[in-house]
């Protein structure tokens, strides 16, 4: 696709064809040998074509004018995410020409998009809805800016494209940030109430002024019965006349009003100067909330002459510096805040109690203020004489005059508590509360910072996943699971020591970041140390559990230069380690990268396979082992993709279960098998039932009973003609839902069978409680009989279980006459396998087992 945008390549071709045709008509009109009666007709055709060409040019000009007139960036995007066109606003926003943008994937403009980001977009657009999302776009210089993208679908020459309008949110985000910072940092108390008078926010200053310890106590401490309100004359003010209530009722602003508030809880009286401002929603006629701003004027109310006392209450001191004499004057509160002995008498004394680089920052700000008559406003950190750390906000204004006699006057506010609270919040925001390790956001930030530093770029990520953790969590509960995670984190910390940065990445997954510049083999050595740390069992609630770890390793720069890429590749390596048997580590390799690419390619094609009609079903007969008579057939799926070719079911089915696509595929198999069984019955084929495999994801992710009922109704198939085969995993996922779903299916007459019995969890307790009709003996055990003793024992055991519970039993994978004879001897009557027949097309199966004459009649 060129920079001409959608349709423009076609238009260019059409223009060329039109120009050629027009030239030919012009030449024909001027041909003297042309019969006279044809010349007017050709002239009319020439004029009509010229007019049509001019009209088309006008339409294209209008399209481009309208497209470029939109003030927001607009992109036209193909189904696979390729940019087809972009307007002038987009070129200006991204600082790129149309030629640089068109033909690139949308990730070129938005490199932070998640994997498979187009999937929810297409799902929304195909429902006829508009998809809206807030993301970050990137300019040509690498800077980012937040946008709100509205995407809609449109049809262009029978192809569905996306038109995406991006609205720059930078101004809004900046305004919101400034508003939040103002709310949290202003020393005025601010309380926001909704239309019902309920408090929805109070800033730190409000909590401090009103003596409220934390947000949990906010609603309780500000209840009406806790406070009495008085005017300046000592008269009690009823609630209806209090400023916030009055502003909500009338919609009018209440200017600064001094009121007394007596707390029955603390038995203290505070005098506050209160201003209430009603706020309206767009188009609203009544206030939706009211903003109350207040300051504590108790000290001023008591005695306006006690200025120093008022400063102490507000933790604000005053200062003045006479630059000519280098004399510094501090109020009592300012001296208390600085805590120096003796008190600073010169600006050099004050600078001496500050830490670097704040000392240099204040000196530079003072010099600038003196030289240019400017103000200064700095947050500074220093030490009191007793060794306590303090934070101050120092504000000053320079008076104009000679530099030798200039004065700077200002305030000095103690913000130590606020800064300490901010630091506490910052630490909490970066810490996992369960383990005390760094959390996901913090470790991503740390890794990005490290990779951006050339001196630290040689680093490795160890992605750690606990094996069998879910079993412990399910058996002992989440509380025990949390204790296990805490114990596991401590073992990892002991194994790593000071050689790496450790984080809990989520669930039972941990990350370790370590340097490789001084020791290239450090990642592998640390991985071995972690595995060794997990070699000892865990003890929880009197039980002993063997929990191991699977570890994936990815190293920068060879496996990625970005944090997300490095973590993703370590994750891929971890899953390969888990696939190989767990309790081991695996480094990311080019082969794994290729496998990952193949999985992505497989996922893309698999998602469209049902729509593209790429699936077919074959049917393997279920037969009476002694006679070979068919009693049923199992539906087996086959996939033939135009690019990938014939795909093995065991390969793409497991992948579909991982991605969740098995739900849609399984629904298609269910409907198709029911329809085919109906056709066989109509043709007189004497089969009792058709068997369909059901994934545990279908069982958990949808109302399976309703889908089965719909498939039976659509095909007109009776319930007893359908058999559903489940794996043992279904039995232990959710017992109450399992019982309800199985009961609903059995009420329809559907035959319920546990497939590959003995391979998985062998949840015998659930067999006793669930309404199951039969079991299928796994070919894993059938293949070993009658020579392998362990397989013979399992076959005898499963046969005994089925017989004692009154369940039918079908043997899978029968390939030899010896296997058939063994199964008959132990009482298995029904089976399937290549000894009798492979999977057959519907017509082939009907030809192999033709209708009986009784059925024909």
From TrEMBL:
GGDEF domain spans which residues? 457-590
Among InterPro entries, the record links this protein to:
Biofilm_reg_signaling (IPR052155), EAL_dom (IPR001633), EAL_sf (IPR035919), GGDEF_dom (IPR000160), Nucleotide_cyclase (IPR029787), PAC (IPR001610), PAS (IPR000014), PAS-assoc_C (IPR000700)
Give all residue intervals belonging to the PAC domain.
131-181, 374-427
Q: Where is the PAS domain?
A: 59-112, 175-218
Alphabetical list of Pfam families matching this protein: EAL, GGDEF, PAS_4, PAS_9
**Could you tell me which PROSITE patterns the record lists for this protein?**
EAL, GGDEF, PAC, PAS
Domain EAL, by residue range, is 599-853
Question: Which Gene3D superfamilies does the annotation name?
Answer: 3.30.70.270, EAL domain (3.20.20.450), PAS domain (3.30.450.20)
Report what the protein is called. EAL domain-containing protein
User: What species was this sequence derived from?
Assistant: Lysobacter yangpyeongensis
């Amino acid at each position: 696709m060129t920079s001409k945008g959608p349709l423009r390549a076609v238009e260019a071709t059409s223009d060329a064809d039109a120009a050629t045709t027009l030239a030919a008509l012009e030449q024909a009109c001027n041909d003297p040998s042309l019969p006279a009666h044809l010349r007017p007709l050709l002239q009319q055709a020439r004029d009509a074509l010229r007019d049509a060409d001019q009209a088309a040019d006008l339409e294209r000009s209008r399209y481009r004018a309208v497209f470029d007139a939109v003030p927001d960036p607009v992109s036209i995007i193909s189904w696979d995410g390729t940019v087809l066109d972009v307007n002038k606003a987009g070129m200006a926003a991204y600082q790129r020409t149309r030629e640089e943008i068109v033909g690139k994937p949308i990730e070129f403009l938005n490199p932070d998009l998640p994997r498979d980001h187009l999937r929810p977009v297409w799902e929304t657009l195909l429902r006829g809805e508009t998809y809206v999302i807030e993301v970050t776009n990137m300019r040509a210089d690498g800077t980012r800016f937040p946008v709100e993208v509205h995407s809609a679908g449109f049809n262009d020459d029978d192809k569905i494209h996306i038109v995406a309008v991006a609205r720059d949110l930078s101004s809004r985000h900046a305004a919101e940030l400034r508003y939040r910072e103002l709310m949290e940092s202003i020393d005025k108390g601010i309380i926001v109430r909704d239309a019902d008078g309920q408090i929805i926010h109070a800033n730190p200053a409000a909590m401090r002024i009103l003596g409220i310890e934390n947000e949990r106590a906010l609603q309780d401490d500000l209840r009406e019965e806790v406070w009495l309100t008085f005017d300046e004359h000592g008269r009690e003010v009823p609630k209806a006349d209090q400023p916030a209530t009055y502003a909500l009722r009338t919609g009018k602003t209440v200017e600064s009003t001094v009121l007394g508030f007596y707390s029955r809880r603390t038995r203290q009286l505070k005098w506050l100067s209160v201003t209430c401002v009603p706020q309206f929603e767009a188009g609203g006629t009544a206030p939706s909330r009211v903003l109350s701003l207040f300051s504590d004027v108790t000290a001023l109310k008591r005695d306006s002459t006690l200025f120093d006392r008022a400063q102490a209450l507000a933790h604000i001191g005053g200062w003045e510096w006479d630059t000519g004499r280098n004399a510094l004057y501090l109020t009592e509160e300012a001296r208390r805040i600085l805590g120096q002995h003796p008190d600073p008498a010169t600006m050099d004394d004050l600078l001496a109690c500050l830490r670097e680089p704040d000392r240099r920052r204040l000196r530079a700000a003072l010099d600038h203020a003196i030289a240019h008559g400017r103000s200064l406003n700095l947050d500074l950190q220093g030490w009191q004489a007793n060794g306590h750390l303090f934070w101050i906000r120092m504000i000053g204004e320079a008076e104009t005059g000679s530099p030798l006699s200039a004065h700077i006057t200002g305030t000095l506010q103690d913000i130590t508590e606020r800064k300490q609270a901010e630091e506490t919040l910052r630490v909490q925001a970066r810490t996992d509360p369960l383990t005390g390790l760094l959390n996901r956001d913090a470790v991503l930030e740390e890794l990005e910072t490290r990779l951006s530093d050339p001196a630290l770029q040689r680093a490795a990520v160890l992605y750690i996943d606990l094996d069998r953790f879910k079993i412990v969590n399910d058996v002992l509960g989440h509380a025990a699971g949390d204790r296990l995670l805490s114990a596991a984190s401590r073992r990892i910390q002991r194994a790593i020591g000071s050689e790496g940065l450790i984080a809990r990445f989520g669930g039972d997954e941990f990350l370790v970041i370590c340097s490789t510049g001084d020791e290239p083999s450090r990642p592998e050595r640390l991985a071995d140390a972690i595995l060794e740390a997990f070699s000892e069992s865990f003890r929880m609630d009197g039980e002993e559990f063997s929990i191991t770890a699977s570890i994936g390793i990815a190293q920068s720069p060879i496996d990625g230069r970005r944090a997300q890429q490095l973590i993703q590749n370590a994750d891929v390596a971890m899953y390969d380690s888990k696939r190989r048997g767990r309790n081991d580590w695996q480094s990311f390799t080019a082969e794994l990268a290729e496998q990952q690419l193949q999985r992505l390619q497989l996922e893309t094609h698999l998602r469209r396979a049902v729509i593209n009609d790429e699936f077919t079903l074959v049917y393997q007969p279920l037969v009476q082992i002694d006679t070979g008579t068919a009693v049923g057939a199992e539906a087996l799926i086959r996939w033939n993709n135009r690019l990938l070719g014939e795909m093995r079911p065991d390969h793409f089915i497991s992948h579909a279960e991982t991605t969740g696509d098995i739900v849609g595929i399984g629904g298609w198999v269910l409907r198709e098998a029911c329809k085919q069984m109906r056709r066989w019955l109509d043709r007189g084929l004497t089969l009792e039932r058709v068997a369909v495999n059901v994934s545990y994801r279908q069982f958990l992710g949808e109302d399976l009973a309703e889908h089965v009922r719909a498939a039976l109704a659509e095909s007109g198939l009776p319930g007893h003609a359908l058999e559903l085969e489940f794996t043992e995993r279904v039995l232990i996922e959710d017992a109450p839902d399992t019982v309800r779903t199985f009961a609903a299916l059995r009420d329809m007459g559907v035959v319920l069978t546990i497939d590959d019995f003995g391979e998985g969890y062998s949840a015998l307790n659930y067999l006793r409680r669930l309404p199951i009709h039969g079991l299928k003996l796994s070919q894993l055990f059938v293949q070993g009989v009658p020579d392998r003793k362990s397989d013979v024992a399992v076959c005898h055991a499963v046969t005994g279980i089925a017989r004692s519970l009154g369940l039918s039993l079908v043997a899978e994978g029968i390939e030899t006459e010896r296997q058939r004879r063994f199964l008959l001897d132990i009482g298995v009557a029904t089976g399937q396998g290549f000894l009798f027949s492979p999977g057959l097309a519907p017509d082939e199966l009907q030809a192999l087992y033709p209708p009986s004459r009784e059925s024909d009649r």
